[in-house]
Design brief:
The chain is α+β, with helices and mostly antiparallel strands. It is built from five helices and nine strands, in the order E-E-H-H-E-H-E-E-H-E-E-H-E-E. A hairpin with a 2-residue loop joins strand 6 (176-185) and strand 7. The N and C termini lie far apart (61 Å).
Length: 265
């Protein structure tokens, strides 16, 4: 078979610069697609959060309507002031929920820096927009206030929110407990996110970080379903931080994810 670079008996050397340019373009396209994947997964996560937040919004707005309506019916300045104060508190909580959703939807670029891990964990829990205790799930956070990691806070928050959502979904309908524990080991910080939910089958464990692999596609509620990108993106983000993410699970007893990140001095 003749060489594709041969013409009329003359060997043509491929243009190295042109090949390099094509490789660079392909690399740029791959980077762009990976960024789009991260953003798409974040939007899917926001969809799950919105299903939870909509119920909380109703709980916040109902008292506002009641307080305002009652105050308008009464000719009592002191009562009106009290009603307005209550409305203001409820409205501020609604604004806080909205801001958290908007922050999660924004692009999370920027170089890693020293970040308080306790603040990241607390903010990630609050991002649910609904107290996890309302789902009959206890919460334990054993993370020292002075423990810091070198990370992009928005990206690691996306990882933690994903893991919290997974843990919550695994424990819905049963009494459970979500536990955060973190410790510094040498130059690394090990962050454990554990639940006592239904666990993961041993046959599924090797595949959970694969794109579009999910065990929740047929769940009966939208906030229980998944599209199989969450853990893939979590693994991608953590790896990009020079870290790793491991999982241990026992069917019927629960799951523990361990995120390892560089410590910040």
């Amino acid at each position: 078979m003749s060489s594709p670079y041969a013409s009329q008996g003359t060997t043509v050397t491929p243009d190295v610069d042109q090949i390099q340019q094509q490789l660079t373009r392909l690399e740029d396209q791959f980077t762009s697609l990976r960024k789009q994947l991260h953003h798409s997964q974040r939007l899917a996560l926001l969809g799950t959060m919105a299903a939870m937040v909509s119920h909380e919004y109703n709980n916040l707005m109902t008292p506002i309507v009641s307080f305002a309506g009652y105050a308008l019916e009464q000719d009592d300045p002191e009562l009106t002031r009290s009603a307005l104060n209550k409305c203001l508190r409820q409205a501020k909580q609604a604004c806080t929920l909205s801001n958290r959703i908007l922050n999660m939807s924004a692009d999370q670029d920027g170089a890693p820096s020293a970040v308080s891990l306790r603040e990241l964990v607390d903010e990630s829990i609050e991002c649910l927009g609904r107290a996890i205790e309302k789902d009959n799930i206890g919460l334990t956070v054993d993370v020292a206030d002075d423990l810091s990691v070198c990370a992009n806070p928005g990206q690691i928050q996306q990882v933690l929110v994903n893991l919290i959502q997974n843990a919550r979904q695994a424990m819905l309908g049963r009494r459970g407990r979500l536990t955060f524990r973190a410790e510094r080991i040498g130059d690394e910080v090990h962050i454990g996110v554990a639940d006592i939910g239904q666990g993961i089958r041993s046959d599924d464990l090797p595949h959970i970080f694969e794109p579009f692999f999910t065990t929740k596609s047929h769940a009966d509620r939208p906030d229980k379903r998944g599209i199989g990108l969450g853990l893939t993106v979590c693994n991608d983000i953590v790896t990009a931080h020079d870290g790793r993410i491991d999982v241990e699970s026992t069917l019927g007893h629960g799951t523990t994810f361990t995120v390892v990140l560089p410590a910040a001095d």
